[in-house]
Specification:
The protein is built from 17 helices and 13 strands. It has about 425 residues and is an alpha/beta fold. The strands form three sheets. A six-stranded mixed sheet has the order 3-2-1-4-5-13, sandwiched between helices. Helix 1 packs parallel to helix 3, helix 2 packs parallel to helix 4 and helix 5 runs parallel beside helix 11. The longest helix is centred in the middle third of the chain and has 17 residues. The structure holds uracil (URA).
Length: about 425
Amino acid sequence: MRIPELIEKKRDGRELTSEEIRFFVEGYTRGDIPDYQAAAWCMAVFFRGMTRRETADLTLAMAHSGEMLDLHDIAPIVVDKHSSGGVGDKVSLIVAPLVAASGLHVGKMSGRGLGFSGGTVDKLESIPGMRLTLSLPEFKKQLKKVGLVLTGQSADLAPADGKLYALRDVTGTVQSIPLIASSVMSKKIAGGAQAIVLDVKVGRGAFMETLPEARALARAMVGIGKLVKRRTVALLSDMNQPLGHAVGNALEVREAIDTLHNGGPADFREHCLTVAAHLLVLAGKADRLAAARKLATAALADGSAWERFRAFVEAQGGDVATIEQPERLPAADLVDVVRAPRSGYLREIDAREVGLAAVDLGAGRHKKSDPIDYAVGFVIHHKVGDRVVKGEPLFTVHANDRKRLAVARERVLAAHVIAAGKAAPLPLFYGVIR
Ligand code: URA
């Protein structure tokens, strides 16, 4: 088999065989296929798509590119949740300790930032000392001891996704249903989770901008989950405006800490409780969503979710003092409050523009080798539908460079649309795919 022929075959819209897909995934993981050919292959998939069979083959080949964890000796059921990617989406930082505190074992595989969307691994790395590439024995040991473990892709676990994810991030090949579905589900399958809740985002700050596209992605992933006999549910959730207020790694960790202390923005808290409730029902901890929600609400209120987060950070080498005193997390030198230029109602806060502006400030990458500036980002003070009064704070920019700050300020100001007439708030969820 020759890789140029596989690229041409997909470029011309033909279906790849299972062997051809395995050949590509194994060759790229080993380093035999260079980035430029893998990027061309991803671009061909981006434009031509994949059949259901090809997507399932790609997912399984990526999952099998490393070890496949079997965690039955640790817990009867291990759970995981995954977002398809959004702006200000720090839900995993709450839901994982929350359901762990409610008695579930959470073995989670996460990714870094991707395009305009942030990634859980980058967010957690803003806590000094945090280790997010764990060996398999470390993963298992911590799952047993703490009931909660989180790792990125590694040479052991889903290495094909680790490489393809980093490549897609900087080659314009993120927004593809087969590439997202295989990336998400390969991690979940390799990580050994038996019950998986997928938070599929839809809107301007998501990789799927419309509901039909998001539904198609959700169905593709739930279908793969069924194929490998994992209990899988997908929620369709709004990502037109940033989730919560904070966008940017350390800023989002701070907001997560507030939420784990039973505070945080109302929309974000509500979102987390809903995702957690679905996970608790899926894993059999509660038979109805209402009962599951009570469990989750109690774990936030009684401090047990926070305690579990603290134990998790400590177990993975994070400096606990920085989460106990979040003012010690990385902080930007320049903090600029931008005020509303007129009074009215917020009709739109374009999450994609906010996400891209955060990447430009240094919160994400333009090239694979770009370092992350953990301190930078935005705090967006309002939600769509809010009334704002001229001169009141609209958002705050956290930056480490004056020029970048000035550009980000204008971009995020333009992302806020203030209209004279009332605007309806956005819903949090649009549906569930089982
Ligand atoms: N999350 C992932 O893990 N992969 C994607 O491609 C998008 C979101």
